[in-house]
Amino acid sequence: MLNKIDKLMAEVAAMHAKNAGEAENLRIKYLGRKGIMNDLMEEFRSVAPEKKRELGQKLNTLKQAITERINSLKDQAAVTETAGPAVDLTRTPYPIPLGTRHPLTIVKNEIVDIFSRLGFTLAEGPEVEDDWHVYSSMNFADDHPARDMQDTFFIESHPDIILRSHTSSVQARVMEKQQPPIRVICPGRVYRNEAISARAHCFFHQVEGLYVDKNVSFTDLKQVLLLFAQEMFGPDTKIRLRPSYFPFTEPSAEMDISCHLCGGKGCSFCKHTGWVEILGCGMVDPAVLDANGIDSSVYTGYAFGMGIERITNLKYQVKDLRMFSENDTRFLDEFVSAN
Ligand code: DAH
After folding, report:
1. Is 282 close to ligand 1, i.e. is its CB under 6 Å away?
2. Are residues 143 and 248 in the same domain?
């Protein structure tokens, strides 16, 4: 009988049930009224009294082991039957990845936000434009080289319809509809017929600013741009304006900021000059005001234009312009914390 009990003990560990039905069959086989345990109890009655104590204990242990094993098989079957095999309840949950704002959008929003606080409102215009709004109304002479195929994408069947090459066209769109005071900020995409490389692209983004009112002066322009530079690049940022030329402004200037990487001491980023260029600006040429229906004998204005890619590169040191349009999530994920 001792042998039988040992053999049964070994069987218990190997018991398997694919479902609750099989587990119940095992229960009947071992623990049922006509089951194996019952037969053993019968046999136990005729065992010699001096062996009863030891055998009795062994039988109890066996019965308990069988009961526990069958109960656990029943529990397992219940879990798999309700959850189904497709759901693994033991798997560690992982965070669901969230998308991020594009770095150019982050920077555009920041620029718009700074100028909004200074009272500028948002204005937008079409990307497919006519020659008038992009060039003629902005005082470009008929033979200005910027109209050349080198620069401008023409719509073949309509030589007058082009993809805008700068957001200055939105200045014209605003002035033809609205009399001063005008204080607008105009972000948007622009197109130029350039070979794509790390430093140039056939499309990029600009933000145009325009302020027209009575008595607007160059000092106003300079003060607003200083404030913008310090908000964008930090309170210690300095600016300098260098004389330049644009058809639509007179006088015109290009603005540099003190290099925010070396603090103006000179480093490889600023080519050891301590300064980096960030935008073009100037007083709106009276010819532009008049061409767009605003009396230049009453009003004056200033304008500025900057590349969003340029500002983003300065802020985040993106080395290759093409990364902005490749949508590589490894690049975009680097801006999660800036969102
Ligand atoms: N439109 C110029 C460009 O695309 C940028 C610019 C310069 C805009 C001076 C302005 C300005 O409004 O005053 O390079």
Report:
1. yes
2. yes
Averaged pLDDT, 182-209: 96
DSSP string, 126-161: -SEEEHHHHTGGGT--TT-GGGSTTTPPEETTEEEE
Q: Could you report the per-residue pLDDT of 273-318, keeping only the tens digit for each? A: 999 999 999 999 999 999 999 999 999 999 999 999 999 999 998 9
**94, pLDDT greater than 80:** no
CATH number at residue 310: 3.30.930.10
* 311 within 8 A of 107, measured Cβ to Cβ: yes
How far apart are the CA of 195 and the centre of ligand 1, in A?
Answer: 21
Residue span of the structural domain in which 164 resides: 103-338
Q: Which residue out of 208, 241, 254, 283 has the highest number of ligand 1 atoms within 8 Å of its CB and is therefore the one to mutate?
A: 208
Are 108 and 79 found together in one domain?
Answer: no
- Closest approach atom of ligand 1 to CA 190: 4
The total of structural domains in the chain comes to 2
Task: Give me the pLDDT at residue 97, please.
Answer: 74
pTM: 0.73
Residues 251, 147: one domain?
yes
Report long-range pairs for 261-267 (Cβ below 8 Å, ≥24 apart). Answer: 261/317, 263/236, 264/238
Same domain, 290 and 179: yes
Q: Which atom of ligand 1 is nearest to the CA of 167?
A: 1
Q: Is residue 232 part of a domain?
A: yes
